Amino acid sequence: MDITNIIFNKNRMSISFYLTIFVSFALIIHLIYNSFMTTENTDDLLLALVMEETITDQETMRARLRERGVSLTQPTLSRRLARLSIRKVHGRYAHYEPLRNTNPLYFEVELSPPNLLVIRTAPGFAQALGLKIDQLKLEGVAGSLAGDDTVFVAVGRPQILEETRARLESFLGKPA
User: Fold this and answer.
1) More confident residue, 23 or 100
2) How far apart are CA 49 and CA 75, in angstroms?
3) Is residue 143 helix, strand or coil?
4) DSSP at 114
5) Is 160 exposed, middle or buried (0-12, 13-18, 19+ CB in 10 A)?
6) Residue 130 — φ and ψ, nearest 5°?
């Protein structure tokens, strides 16, 4: 056997051996790092992501998390988002604070001068509330626009804004 074959085979084995050691060491470091990435840290990272970036789908969110060393499956990500009150709002993920009072009859009427009333209610009830307001056909109300949890009421004249607010509250019942 030629001495050069022995040397080269030995070197190839050495390179393979050292590469295996290096990969094993990198894997151990990765596992140690991820053990410090607790649920709370991941939750904080999720909240920071939705506040700092415009994320429109869960796959993009998973990619951003992987860039930061966190790997979550899609079902796990969905459960965490639900637990953290992170929802898709207007096409992007955002932290969503639910109303304190989830009574569907609950509403708050705010003045928005010169001629708007803003009515906030429980999620999913604004359209029904807007329909009720339209059916009342209150004098001076030009119309209403309802979303998921907010109704905008346009008042024809700014002078009757406060009066219209009082009439709405009396017709709909005292807000909670």
Assistant:
1) 23
2) 18
3) strand
4) T
5) middle
6) -60, -40
